[in-house]
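Deliverable D4.2, example record:
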Amino acid sequence: MIRFEALEPAKENSTRNSILDWAVQRVVEHVDREAELLTTLEGISKGSREKITWDRVMNWSMTHNQETFAQKAPVLFLLITTVAVSQRQRRKLEAKSVAASKDDDDSDKSSDEDVGMPWMQRLLAESKRDPWMGSTVAISILLYFRYRYASLFAIMIGVFLFSCNANREIFTFTSRIGLSVAYSTTLTTLRTLADDSAMFLKGLGAALEHGPLNFLLLFDNVNKNRRAWQQSLLDQDVMNSGTAATLVLLENLLPGALDMTRVLANRRSKARSALTVTKLLDDIDWKHIDKIGSATVVRTWIRSVPSLAHFRSDIETHFSTSLARHRLQTRKSRIYSMRTTNIDKSTSIGANDVLRNLIFDQLNISAHWLKSFVLFCGDQLSIDRLRKLMRYTAKGDTPSSNYNWVLPVIQLWHLKYNWQKTVIQRHWWDESGRGVYGLAHDARHIRREKFNPTKCDFYPAHHLLEDRFDAMVLHALRLICEEKSEIVTPKSIPLIDGLDTYFKPDGLMSSTSFEQLLTFGDIVNRRYMVNAAYEDALGHIERDIEVYGSPADMSMPSNDVSQPIQIGSKSKKKSKRSKAATAETRNISSGDQCLANDISFLRTTMWYLEICAAIAEGDIGRVFEVIKILRFSFWGTGSTNYGNEMLELACNFIYEFTPELVTAIFENYLVNTSNLEGHWFELDLLQEHFNFWIKRLFNSKSHDFDSRHLAECEFGSSKRSYTHSDPEKIADINRLGAHYREHDILQYVTARNQPYQVHAVTL
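Output generated by the structure prediction step:
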């Protein structure tokens, strides 16, 4: 028993000190009993032979432990928090508490929202530290010193440090002070969790014996370059290729949706042979596309012009009701990562090994259970290898020797990315000169010279397309406002400020209703985003005054034709993809080639932005309305791989799949990890995020893709949010707007040529 010295050394044998010593000993005994009680609780300790599971990990809560300490060990918690909170802070808290209780007594209107002591939250936010959480951590560390199996908190910290690629020295230090378990214990824990994940996956597979299949499988390659520390003949740099997979439980599955009988019968009857170009053209709903184009333009106006912001709810309702096609009900997707392997899925043999590993090894499914389709999702390469594998094994007699039960479903993020690169590269012209306009010129104008159109990184390319599209449609709105009001905005006024002046309460167009805005959107769509507008810009036919209004008196002088200036004298290596046409094939009619190129840009970019918006909003039907157009566009732009996949989808949806199967695919084409509206995204993008973390762990921990703890674990620690915040783009849009005004962009100028021609998608 620890003996405490008297508080007053000069009077060691005084009665006061003896009483204090007795009281302290009683407190110590009580704290000892409380600590012993805490070591037996489930949320703090685990049994000596008990294996930790993902349920324990995912259900562990710091807040729950804090409440447990305060309720089960009040004296211990009081002692620790007394050290953490000074007497001055306690007086402030008591004063706040008394004031809050008086306010509650005086007020007759009390609600559940007031129970949470907002003054306490403000105080904690101001201090930027939580003394109660710190006290909870301190007690958890002390309990781990007291009892080696009171380690749940230390295990959580160990797994968290591992997922953050913490250095071994950090593990050594934190385990020494009881903050985490040792590195070796962390690896053992992860292997135990891997076994728990494996048992869960096998349980999902075993359910197939007695019931219908209820999951889809998503897989993608994961590559990482392992560099040799000191290269030699026996130790060289190696590119490790593996496969990462994810299982997603299906939602809203209709009875018999995955039945193979009717689909296989349609395949054997070669029903797809009836597909014609006319059938594909008739499948496109151009009225819907025109409405989407108009609404996308109006949404941009409302988002960018402050005085139109009050229409935001109207435009969102318009998209979610009038323009909705197959909108998914908001939910939280149930997602489970599977074991990574060293299998290279880029070949048909590798695809075969991946399928057998996922179905027969990880899910432990017997071949004779495979009586319905299994959805396999991936990018274009993965789906192509699956189709080839199915053709190679079509004559097999059993489910283990043929793959009739495999249903490949190409995913949307890589498709969207491919179309984004197509738009960029078709409209990019590197040469500069007097009167040369276009995407490359505008990118340089807003100081984005470092953008690489060949590599075409996704997010910089997305923002470039979006910003140029926004600036153009805002400039188009300015032209309409000037046409309607017959007042031209001075060039000195920035684009957005000028538009805000038109629509503010005392502006010339302040009475504009939402329906009138949609009408303006229809005008922009007809003038700049349909095939007829492209043909009109070429000048082969007379421009319709009812569509374009009275023609402006603008023409290009004969001695002011665009003269490109070559950048550099050395020849550059050409990309295999066709970009823009050469100068010899440009328009030489009396039309406006600059306007025609801009119309092509607005039209194709609108399709891309609609895919992005529809995916985020969870309307898969709107996505496929655009895909119906891309069935032609991918072929026309040289993306034959995706063009072939689009035709395959057309054959599937029009001639082979049952309505129940189509609904099942649509209902599970996207995932939502947050159960929030507007937070849907593609399955292959989900896998790309998982691959990022797998590569990060693989790179730092020097393991291969078959390592057990890397293979079957999905860390359950608190996830940090990596959101892509949109920077302020007003300056970029205003700069482009001034440029468009100065050079008559989106206005018809007779005989204005360009050194390149972007051929429109003519349907």
